[in-house]
Amino acid sequence: MSAYFCEWCERQDDELTPEEVKGLYAHVVKHGRFPGGVADVRHVERALRADIPSTAEFHRLVNDYLIKQQGTKLTDGQRLQRQRKRRGLTQSRLARVLGVKKAAVCHYESGKRPLSKEALEWLNAEKPLQGESLQK
């Protein structure tokens, strides 16, 4: 880990660890913003080694970063399917949680369609998101 001077928070700082990136990601998913504002965005950009031009790109970049850190060879669709099954959800129930049709979940899992922002949030969330406990 290397130290650098952050012009946004005006202090010497170390790069974020993968756990810190995941923690900031969870905060953004829950609250819709970075706790430290622009300084946190810049720190995450440094950890990801990429600029974050949009919210959708933020989710994609963090997802790619976390996959790389975990060393997994699974596709996003395979990871989504594995996580869905671990949480005991059917494709229909996950579709309701994500606000999409069952066919979209099927396409995500088969790799025919890239994951939506909501699907990436759900996939990378530590805890169940609102609505996940929907009944059959």
Description:
Strand 1 and strand 2 (11-14) form a beta hairpin. Strands 1-2 form a two-stranded antiparallel ribbon. The radius of gyration is 16 Å and the shape is elongated. The protein has helices at residues 18-31, 38-48, 55-70, 76-86, 91-98, 102-110, 117-124, and strands at 3-6, 11-14. The chain folds into two domains: 3-70, no CATH class; 76-124, lambda repressor-like DNA-binding domains (434 Repressor (Amino-terminal Domain), Orthogonal Bundle). The model has no long low-confidence stretch (mean pLDDT 83). The chain has 136 residues and is mainly alpha-helical. The termini are far apart.
In brief, what are we looking at here?
The protein is built from seven helices and two strands; from the N terminus they run ββααααααα. It is mostly helical and 136 residues long. A two-stranded antiparallel sheet has the order 1-2.
* Spatial ordering of strands, largest sheet: 1-2
Beta-strand portion reads: 5-15%
Flag low-confidence runs. Answer: none
Give a short account of the largest sheet. 2 strands, antiparallel
SSE succession:
EEHHHHHHH
> Considering DSSP H and I runs of 4 or more, what fraction of the residues is helical?
55-70%
Q: Which structural class matches the secondary elements?
A: mainly alpha
Overall tally of domains: 2
Mean pLDDT: 83
Task: Specify the number of helices.
Answer: 7
**CA-based shape:** elongated
CA radius of gyration: 16 Å
Tell me the number of strands.
2
Q: State the end-to-end distance.
A: 47 Å
